Amino acid sequence: MNVSLTNQLEVFVQQKVATGMYNSASEVIREALRLMAEKDAEQALKLANLRADIKQAVDSVAAGQARVFDPDLLKAQARTR
């Protein structure tokens, strides 16, 4: 596989290798891809949790368990505490 990088990214990779933390440009790219995969997985989990929360809210509304949000009432309750 061949990968083309912009000059800026190529310099970045070279700087990472120069620090001694990585032995080669390939190691830098593998680490970057691993981190990207982790980030994608975290985002997918957050999205799944958000969808589950939305479904729960929609189901609550459908079951008649929802209340109308009254910000003034919320403020009044907070002030009494």
From TrEMBL:
Tell me the domain of life.
Bacteria
- Segments passing through the bilayer: none
Keywords associated with the record: Toxin-antitoxin system
Q: Which InterPro entries match?
A: ParD, ParD_sf, Ribbon_hlx_hlx
Q: What family does the entry list?
A: Belongs to the ParD antitoxin family.
Which purpose does this protein serve, as stated in its record? Antitoxin component of a type II toxin-antitoxin (TA) system. Neutralizes the effect of toxin ParE.
NCBIfam families given in the database record: antidote_CC2985
What is the protein name for this chain? Antitoxin ParD
Q: Which organism is it from?
A: Cellvibrio fontiphilus
